Amino acid sequence: MRKIELCEKSIKNLIKCVNENKLTKLMGDFRSVVSKSFNISLEQYLVNLGFNIEKCGFCEDYSQILMLDLEIIGNEIFIKDIFYRSKNPYICRSSKCPSKKLNPNSIERVMKSNKISKEQARELIHSRNKSPFYKENHLNNEDFLKWQKRDKNYFIKKYGTQQGESRFKYYCDKISYKNSKERYVLENNIEKFIDISNLKAITLKNMIRVHSKDGELIYSNWKNKIANTQESFVRRYGEDEGINRYQKYKENLSYS
Ligand SMILES: [Zn+2]
Asked: For residue range 207-218, what is the model confidence (pLDDT) as tens digits?
């Protein structure tokens, strides 16, 4: 328990706030009187009194919301303990803090704002089940891709066998509708459908439109890449599979 040493008037004011249960006012008044009297922050004042105050894990600032447990004895006021109003004291509220630039569900932000390890942060994020959308929240790329895959198993795992199957079917219908010509027709947008299909096509004209002066080179690289030579089959599918597929491709050509 530490005694607050301030002028008589300030002490009287703080005691009045405690008695009237005006704790927010108390903190504001306390902060301003400390700053006026000693030209230091309230946090620094409390550190000088021997309290340990957590700093922000990102900028070393003391900007979290502090609360004090106070006791009045006679005309004196004592600090019994300090606590934090925010859920974790390791993140400040300053708009200049680098934490503001981080996604709230990123590993780095969760790690530093809770002072926990990378592994613990990953577990916490998963337990909140908020952000498996971020690649960095998965152990590796494989896990991430597995999570993203919306196959039948995903729906069954999430909704149970019966509901999972019907949800999966609905999902497939929705996706195919989204990309279908039917949708554009239904939505009176057939012109847009044609436009998009044409714009997406890999043609010299489109490549130049998108990549300007590099377009020609990109287009010719692409042409070479998809050229139906044995070399390109090997490049795409590996030695054995590539030669195999190339043979089949040639056979099919000779039949047609
Ligand atoms: Zn900060």
From this structure: 888 888 888 888
Residue 72, strand partner residues: 77
Classify residue 91: in a domain, yes or no.
no
**Residue range(s) defining the domain that contains residue 141:** 102-149
Same structural domain for residues 137 and 156?
no
177: burial class by Cβ within 10 Å (0-12, 13-18, 19+)?
Answer: exposed
- Give 80 Cα–ligand 1 centroid separation in angstroms: 26
Distance 153 CA to ligand 1 centre (A): 42
d(CA 176, ligand 1 centre) in Å: 46
First to last CA, the chain: 94
- pLDDT the model gives residue 35: 93
- Taking the centre of ligand 1 as the mean of its atom positions, its distance from the CA of residue 16, in whole angstroms, is 33
Which tens digit of pLDDT belongs to each residue from 210-248?
A: 888 888 888 888 887 777 888 878 887 888 888 888 888
- Predicted TM-score (pTM) of the model is 0.47
Helix, strand, or coil here: 91? coil
Q: How many domains does the chain have?
A: 4
* 102 CA distance to ligand 1 middle (Å): 12
Distance 114 CA to ligand 1 centre (A): 13
Same domain (yes/no): 58, 71: yes
Ligand 1 center to 86 CA (angstroms)? 13
Residue range 58-70: mean pLDDT, rounded: 83
Q: How far apart are the C-alpha atoms of 10 and 33, rounded to whole Å?
A: 7
